[in-house]
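Supplementary notes for students who missed Thursday's class. We covered one full example, reproduced here. Read the sequence, then the structure, then the short commentary at the end.
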Amino acid sequence: MLKDIFVAIEDGEFDQAARLCLQRFHDRSHYWLYAARIGAELLLRLGQHEAAKKLYEAVIATQALPWARLGVARAQLDSGHAPAAKRTLENLISDQPGFSDAYDVMGRAHVEQGSLEEALETYRTATQLTPGSIARLQRQGMLAFYLGQKDEAQRALERASLLGISSKMFDLQTLVLLAITRFVDRDTKGLQRCLDNMSHALERAPQSARLQRFHTTVQIFHLMLARQVAQVVSSVRELTSQMREANFDFEAGCNLVSLVSHLTAAELNLDAAEGWIDTLALRFCTTRSLSELLARAANAHPPFMQRIRDQHTQVTALAEQAMSHSLNGEPRAAVRTLLLHGERTLNSKLIDMARMVLTRHAERIADADELMAATDRLRARCGGAPAAAAVVGDAQRASGGVAIRSSKDLPVAAAKATETAGIEAGTQPPPDGNPPIASAA
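Structure (token representation):
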């Protein structure tokens, strides 16, 4: 029945697949509710948040399904309307207190707004509702780690590892944070197990820069417990030499901040430590929520937390100083200043602001095309800008949604496993057309 939709998804033609879903929904053809759910997911993926929101609302108007109401909140959150999303979620949770997906999205909303303590409480509730969920244990454990709740973090991360070390839902960042808690406890055997598991993962994907950094980080903590100070210092310098690479992302920055903070707290004298912290902060302090997460990664050494917060203030001051040129009728000067600071810091916020000024005032800037090209080159050096919630394990799959994948997203072998439906196994529609929430979540 839905072959045309799934073929379009498999071919990566998401616009066409979305149009087919919308047509089936409007015609009330077979599996029209399931088609609406896939279509809304496609619209979110395509960045058409308002269209997705309208489709979810149309579903609600026919049947007030929890997944559709949750979809409205996701669309609101993705489009930057966090307060509206929280109101939608509060109403949904009030009506459906056992709908665990709603707590996932509410936790994400709290994280994106920098309300980390509220987010942790929300993630705890989600874990209590589904104590066997690997993804929820990881979210709770990771956020508890950043908030300095070591015992809670260790319990959640250990259980996630016990349940899911071989699962595709398992995020190996869990092992990095678990290794740090074991370093603090001076648990040599537990730390060795983390290192062994990370080594096995790296053997399966030896070209992964992410896993290489994970392995080096865990190995450094292991060496530190063994008092191999010279090797520790050498390995730390190897990691810090990568700080300005394009694929050195926010997650890597948080891990490096945690590493340097814990080593400093363990009385290892790293002469360049303050400079490293400043470099990381100037690069990754793009939003208040991300800046606070980066600062919390340094909780083992409070002076570093303050340095990161100070650098957030510095980035804000640089942006305001540059934008004053635009307010004074000199947009080109604003762009040049933002690009100058952006090249020095690799801060994506400053570079994105330069693009915004260029787009708005292109007709008043003679060399706008050249400046836009320079902006694009600089933006590529910065790498992607993550959502804050992604740092605490909220990036693998959107709660309440279906994971839509095509051959462009997957290796050939994995693509064959989903060629029939174009989405993960377990989300095929039942005869009544009402998709199973548990299997799609």
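Commentary. Residues 1-97+402-441 form a domain with the Serine Threonine Protein Phosphatase 5, Tetratricopeptide repeat fold (CATH 1.25.40.10). The first helix runs from residue 3 to 10. If anything here is unclear, bring it to office hours.
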